[in-house]
Amino acid sequence: MRVFILPHDPPFGQFLDITGKEYHYLARVRRLKVGEQFPGTDALGGRWQCTIVSIGPSSLRLQLEQSVTFTEPQQPSIQLIQCLPKATKMDLIVRQSTEAGVRRVIPVYSRYSQVRLKGRQEAEKKLARWQRIADQALQQSGAPRPPLIEPPQEIQTVLENLQEEMGEEVRLFFHQDREGSDTLHGCLSKSVKIVTLVVGPEGGLSEGEIDLLRQKRFVPVTVGNTVLRTETAALYAIAAVQIVVHERRAWEPT
């Protein structure tokens, strides 16, 4: 456990009582004792120093002290629009996206998506599962904050709701074929605060979806000459963006 996800949203008092599965994890699985300390994080990315001050049969009490030693890396906020893949591939995408520090994951239905959740109940069940996976990945990796995972939506709805004014946002969609002459370095050479990525499903994006992406000022980029699985493409795209942004200053001429 690199960091413990606090089960309530801030603001907190000096003490926080932990029950349920979080109590079981700390007291029974980790077998932590009174006086032991560990780092915690809240839903907003705030960092806390947690000290166990008492342990009961079904709850424990933490003393919280806000930490000022943690500084989040100055990286653009990445949001991933991921066309829903088959089976449990979305579980892997959520886990890897969390480890990589993605801020927002938006699952979408596209024309060639082979998965469509049946009704609100199934969608809520999937969403709860993805959130649990993200929480576990954050605790293990120590990523800056848990991502916001949205309920599955139609890709057209998500794209049409995007703001026309982009500001310091870069919009990219990853395609197996080179759809244009733009490069990742060129797209990320300016000051960027938000990077929005679109990754298609197993069958790829349709021509109509590509046209809509272009209308919304998404730039097509490719990450090689091979066709990647959608779960591989998502991580590949996130990693490529982060590396280019992180090392951009080192490549700039002096």
What does this structure look like?
By secondary structure, this protein is α/β, with parallel strands linked by helices. The chain has two domains: 4-66, Beta Barrel (Ribosomal Protein L25, Chain P); 77-251, Alpha/beta knot (3-Layer(aba) Sandwich), CATH 3.40.1280.10. The chain is 33% helix and 23% strand. The chain has seven helices and twelve strands. The protein has helices at residues 20-29, 89-99, 119-141, 155-160, 184-187, 207-215, 230-251; strands spanning 4-5, 15-18, 37-41, 47-55, 60-66, 77-83, 104-109, 148-149, 153-154, 169-174, 194-199, 219-221. Strands 6, 7, 8, 9, 10, 11 and 12 form a seven-stranded parallel β-sheet that branches. Strands 1-3-4-5-2 form a five-stranded mixed β-sheet. Helix 2 runs parallel beside helix 3 and helix 2 runs parallel beside helix 7 (230-251). The longest helix is centred in the middle third of the chain and has 23 residues, at 119-141.
